[in-house]
Amino acid sequence: MSSWSGVAQAYERSFATLCGGTVERLLDDTRSVAVRGGRHLDVGSGTGDLAARAAADGRTVVAVDADPGMGALTERVVPGRAVRAALPALPFGDGCFDAVTANFVVNHVGDPRAATRELARVMRPGGRVAVTSWTASPPTWSELTTYAFDAAGVVVSPGGRLPPELDFDRSVEGLAGVAEDAGLTVLDARELAWDWAVTVDDLWAGIAGGVATAGQAYLAQTSAVQAAAEQHFRRAASERAEGGLLHLPSTAAYVLCGT
């Protein structure tokens, strides 16, 4: 289970653009049930990008995030539509929404199956739930941090994995199994792939700001180790960048569900 407390600004500058790579697919696959004023719930709204684009598409949007910093970012782009709440306890009645999206949320919660059951509960009969998750494959960007951290002598604590009875296989098949356990019918299950274009400065801002496991590990180091890690990261990333940008192939598990 990941903590996102206090990292909203750093996330907006960095990894939010990574997570944005799947937004268009989620919107496309829920458009048929939420067009022309249909009710759309976006859970784990983050910066509010998906919610804002859904609202621009003519949908009646409600955006939920557990972190107050993320909620403030969402409120900025969809005023009056942001609600502070956390899975698996959403403050909505059964079957309230035509479309429900959860972009990189169930892989961060303490009970992914309970969370997905809650997504299913608030979807109306005939609606759609679209969910993404990171897989077990190390992301391309982590090659840079792994190299820099090893070179700097960063001590990384073992990751906080969920208990086996709560965890799921971080794959397309594993995410589909979570959806099926929640009583949903999986209409599509696949791996999504896209190119994440990000500047070296913006990616480093996410790490230095404490985003994700790598960011938390960085903040736990001494100032000397932090300085060495940044130096190694910037050197390696600059060598890989083209025209000031890193182009990092990215993938995620994706499922589209109905009833």
UniProtKB/TrEMBL annotation:
Record-given protein name: Class I SAM-dependent methyltransferase
Gene Ontology terms, MF aspect: methyltransferase activity
SUPFAM superfamilies: S-adenosyl-L-methionine-dependent methyltransferases
Alphabetic keyword roster: Methyltransferase, Transferase
Domain Methyltransferase type: 41-130
Signal peptide span: none
Transferase found in the keyword field: yes
One protein family per Pfam: Methyltransf_11
Source taxon at top rank: Bacteria
A biological process from GO: methylation
Entry-linked Gene3D superfamilies: Vaccinia Virus protein VP39
